[in-house]
């Protein structure tokens, strides 16, 4: 029986309720989620009230939805694919001005254009020496902390935090406050009110910083935005909020979780040590295999839209599950294996379409340099505790590890 575009009670009763998110292993998506790939675009029932929406677990289907302008982000998201309110639900409740991730064209286009010039491949190449210096300094901090040190605290978190602070012009001494608020924004176990409070505090901090940059400008991005007559202060602060949170949360978790994964796959670690030229491909494969943005990207249909013969009705929520799409067997052979020799190009770890991560080139550079220098400095790097004792970030919008004690 077809349930395409219908909300009839008899059809709704047969629909899966929500998206499985509890993992059985550290690196693999939940088995129940992967079982849904038998139908890569399917109707599901959303929390909290069973409203019908859609779940996308296929790679090709996910790209179609994320590239289709009929599916919007500039709407109020009221339903979640899990019993934990999705991060899109909390942020969309009070989207700050300038937070262009939740705007649709043409407003999205206007604001995103202001930052794309900063994140070009060439500019990232020019930044490499400074990123290398930051990585070297944090490797020494890790070494000084001694065996048993937490790689998250000493290396994975400060590297991208320092980089994005320098790019934005945010004083690094303020990092403790913005890191705490960023984590709370993405903590799915907190109430929507608590997450909104964290976002408001971080936005308020940036609102104070923008006029200060105008009065005493530097060569950082906030100074450039503050001096732009087409950008209001509240928009500059909103842009800064996106970049500050996304600029360190995702990369920090990829550095830590990627290290953990390689330590648990010694054959792949040996392959990388023997052939350092594999690093660019290794980063792409780790991005595909781990997909730290594991709760999916949500959209709302602005109008009735047909995708692969399925009618998605105007107003329905659609969730594209990136971690499942990146394990789609129709796109990748043996998708459940970590294989650094794989051509993982085309993965959707950074999303797809007009909202694809604007800072993806920066993240790639940080990971390439970070992993290379870390493994060179510590050829005998290993876990300091049994792997099952590593606390995972299962209830966070960005997956990873809370701590990673290592020795050498």
UniProtKB/TrEMBL annotation:
One Pfam family from the record: p450
Entry keyword set: Heme, Iron, Metal-binding, Monooxygenase, Oxidoreductase
GO molecular function, one term: heme binding
Gene3D superfamilies, A to Z: Cytochrome P450 (1.10.630.10)
InterPro entries on file: Cyt_P450, Cyt_P450_B, Cyt_P450_CS, Cyt_P450_sf
Family, similarity comment: Belongs to the cytochrome P450 family.
Protein name (Swiss-Prot/TrEMBL): Cytochrome P450
Gene source species: Glycomyces lechevalierae
């Amino acid at each position: 029986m077809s349930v395409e575009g219908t909300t009839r009670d008899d059809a709704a009763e047969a629909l899966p309720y929500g998206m499985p998110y509890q993992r059985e292993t550290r690196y693999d998506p939940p088995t129940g989620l992967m079982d849904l790939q038998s139908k890569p675009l399917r109707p599901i029932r959303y929390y909290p009230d069973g409203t019908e929406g859609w779940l996308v677990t296929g790679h090709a289907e996910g790209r179609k939805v994320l590239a289709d302008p009929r599916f919007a982000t500039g709407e109020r998201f009221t339903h979640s694919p899990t019993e934990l309110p999705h991060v899109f639900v909390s942020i969309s409740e009070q989207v700050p001005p300038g937070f262009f991730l939740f705007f649709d064209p043409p407003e999205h286009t206007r604001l995103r254009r202001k930052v794309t010039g900063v994140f070009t491949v060439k500019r990232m190449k020019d930044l490499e020496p400074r990123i290398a210096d930051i990585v070297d300094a944090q490797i020494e901090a890790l070494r000084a902390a001694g065996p048993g040190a937490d790689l998250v605290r000493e290396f994975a978190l400060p590297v991208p935090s320092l980089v994005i602070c320098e790019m934005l012009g945010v004083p690094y001494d303020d990092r403790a406050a913005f890191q705490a608020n960023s984590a709370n924004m993405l903590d799915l176990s907190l109430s929507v009110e608590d997450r909104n409070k964290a976002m408001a505090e971080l936005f308020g901090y940036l609102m104070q910083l923008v006029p200060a940059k105008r009065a005493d400008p530097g060569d950082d991005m906030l100074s450039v935005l503050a001096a732009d007559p087409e950008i209001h202060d509240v928009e500059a602060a909103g842009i800064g909020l996106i970049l500050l949170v996304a600029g360190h949360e995702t990369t920090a978790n990829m550095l830590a979780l990627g290290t953990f994964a390689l330590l648990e796959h010694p054959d792949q670690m040996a392959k990388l040590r023997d052939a350092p030229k594999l690093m660019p491909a290794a980063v792409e494969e780790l991005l595909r295999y781990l997909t730290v943005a594991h709760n999916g990207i949500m959209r709302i249909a602005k109008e009735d839209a047909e995708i692969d013969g399925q009618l998605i009705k105007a107003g329905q929520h659609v969730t594209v599950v990136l971690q499942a799409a990146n394990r789609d067997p129709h796109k990748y052979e043996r998708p459940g294996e970590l294989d650094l020799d794989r051509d993982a190009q085309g993965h959707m770890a950074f999303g797809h379409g007009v909202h694809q991560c604007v800072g993806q080139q920066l993240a790639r550079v940080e990971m390439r340099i970070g992993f290379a220098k870390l493994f060179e400095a510590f050829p005998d790097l290993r876990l300091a505790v049994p792997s099952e004792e590593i606390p995972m970030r299962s209830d966070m919008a960005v997956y990873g590890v809370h701590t990673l004690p290592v020795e050498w």
